[in-house]
Amino acid sequence: LHPPSVVTNPEEIAKLYRELSLYPSLSRADVGPVITSQYGGKYSNIYTEWSQRDLERNENVKFCRQYIVFHDDKSLVYSGASGNCTEIRGEVLSKDSPSGEMKAVVRECTVKGEEKQFLELFVYITKNIKMKSINLTALKKHGKVYEDEQFGCLVWSHSETHLLYVAEKKRPKAESFFQMVPPELSSSIDEEETTRLDRKETGEQFAYHEDWGEALVNKSCPVLCVLDIEGDNVSVLEGVPDDISPGQAFWAPGDTGVVFVGWWHEPFRLGLKFCPNRRSSLFYVDLTGGKCEQLSSGSSAVCSPRLSPDQCRIIYLECSVYGPHMQCSKLCMYDWYTKKTSVVVDEVKRSKEDGFAGIYCSQLSPKCWSADSQRVLISCPQRSRKDLLTVDISTGSVTSLTSDIGSWCLLNIERDLMVVSCSSPNCPPYLVLDSQEKVVWVTLEGSQMLPDIGWQIMTFTPPPEHDNSQYPGLDFEALLIKPKEVKAEGNLPLIVIPHGGPHSVIVAEWILSSSVLCSMGFAVLLVNYRGSLGFGQDNILSLLGNVGSQDVKDVQFAVESVLKNGDFDGQKVAVSGGSHGGFLACHLIGQHPGFYKACVARNPVTNLASMVGSTDIPDWCVVEAGYDYSPDCLPEPSVWEQMLNKSPIKHVTQVQTPVLLTLGEDDKRVPNKQGIEYYKALKARQIPVRLLWYPGNNHSLSKVDAESDGFMNIALWIIQHLSLR
Ligand SMILES: CSCC[C@H](NC=O)C(=O)N[C@@H](CO)C(=O)O
């Protein structure tokens, strides 16, 4: 065999990482109003936001690029960049008004050493100035403004006179029982004055406040806030029941009130990130009397309500409570005037004949309606690609709008002009446009294909002995990324990456780490084992109770099938995964001792039984082990036993593979004690193990320095233990 040609020098690896991390990703696109030029041509500005890792500053930086698009009533005539990219700093949220005449920004900045939040208003028409800057922190009406995708929003009223946002409820200052008040002060301040200054609560200093878990730490009691622009007045909306947290809000037709999603606190707050299966409902609170009405059933989980342009209907996603954390959603519709709810697209158990596999997303794009309020656009995984689908709301028929390459993500649709981010494993994100009638996609600025990276989607049928008797005949897929030119046959090292979740999916899109590994000379196999999203609800359900066996078998089957191709060296196979992917990596090295020569596990689940009491989503452990979760009673001893039996720790005595663990100090989802438990078990058996500890990082280990340091260490660990150096 020829020696494998893999880049092993740390400086060269860092150089490759640096080069490929220069490609930004697209996070947002806004389409401005139609402007008629002095020559009669019609055009619109498109404002886009991109994000990029700045390795020197150790930050993800955001910048904007603007484009100009000339169009007639049916098609695009000309499109091109206008101006250069500009970095955006301090913006927490921003939104153009519906007419495009104003823009609101929530900005965070440090004034005289103190962090403050401001609500700023820019007026474009005639003046083009910053009109207002309101110090929200000084107003003391609420705590910090929510900027997250779960609750956060910044929404203009239809009349453009008010702004709506979500913030943490103001909490009275907690004071020690022994706080001394100078006598001269206590007598001079009357009660009214005390309330005005700041209400204080004695004895509450160390009271525990539940929050919404991983990545939503300190988000406990959100409130809906309204700024009256003319009067510079912020008020907190009344009428929202105390036992729910409101978010994802928008103005009701006619600005008579606010529609929002409310998540129940009972029995206690369970983690919400990646968990759209939490009991929640659509609500309407009216502005005058503060009367609150529940618009959806209350026995399911809902998200992403979007009002149609004609303001008659609200479309939203719905799934069942508890069960798998991510599932196939229903697309539901609430008619504002008849108050009737209908299911537009139902859950799909198995892919339809036309290939439609169901809706899998925890969020619809901020705008998703066609101009005539007859169709809704959804981008979501369909097997191993992210597709763009159009749904006819009167028939429920679903049609794909894309070709067969890579992944498509809808950023916005305005007056039927669709703005989409496209990418594939060898092509970083680029912007495409279409005005729906013809569906002829136009690329804005050239896409940059990386010619040395090759990829394919592979389909696998499990052998009969691996078939699931309850859900027979299911297949699965994997994405294989490998250098296009395999320099010498038979010696390509392979890194196997099962995704986390387990109910998530790897789609054929730009993945920085995989493209760097491929550029270094590795092949990467990302496996969408049965249980992944995008293959029908049956596929998801088939994994419940079978974690640690069905998923492990699928990954191993995919690996062994791929190795039959002559390109690979079966002695140079590594496995790497995060969270449930880390659970699988640890299972694979325990159940196939010696097969994998190196293992990497990011925040892995190693013992379901020891995790159930400490994760923010205890229901996950019970449900994945195959049982129903009830928050008010302890699992039966047999359930604890099953949780242990299905865990990687059960097989740790068989492990021969060196393991690198990367752990986040602040992980609420898979507490780092899980990784430490596994570390100790390996240490005790003298299996080579190294642990990297990332302070200030949560479950995703996604801070720029943690991610880049993690990448380098992972690459070097694999190089060392695959004996590539
Ligand atoms: C109790 S943690 C369960 C694993 C976790 N699932 C949901 O959060 C997981 O695997 N997360 C994935 C994303 O779904 C990850 O990569 O972090």
TrEMBL record:
Its EC number is 3.4.19.1. Keywords: Acetylation, Cytoplasm, Hydrolase. Residues 16-432 form the Acylamino-acid-releasing enzyme N-terminal domain. GO terms for cellular component: cytoplasm. It catalyses: Cleavage of an N-acetyl or N-formyl amino acid from the N-terminus of a polypeptide. GO terms for molecular function: omega peptidase activity; serine-type endopeptidase activity. One of its GO terms (biological process) is proteolysis. Coiled coil: none annotated. Gene3D superfamilies: alpha/beta hydrolase, TolB, C-terminal domain. It is found in: Cytoplasm. Its main location: cytoplasm. Residues 515-723 form the Peptidase S9 prolyl oligopeptidase catalytic domain. The keyword Nucleotide-binding does not apply. It comes from the Eukaryota. This enzyme catalyzes the hydrolysis of the N-terminal peptide bond of an N-acetylated peptide to generate an N-acetylated amino acid and a peptide with a free N-terminus. It preferentially cleaves off Ac-Ala, Ac-Met and Ac-Ser. Also, involved in the degradation of oxidized and glycated proteins. Homotetramer. Belongs to the peptidase S9C family. This is Acylamino-acid-releasing enzyme. It comes from Oryzias sinensis (Chinese medaka).
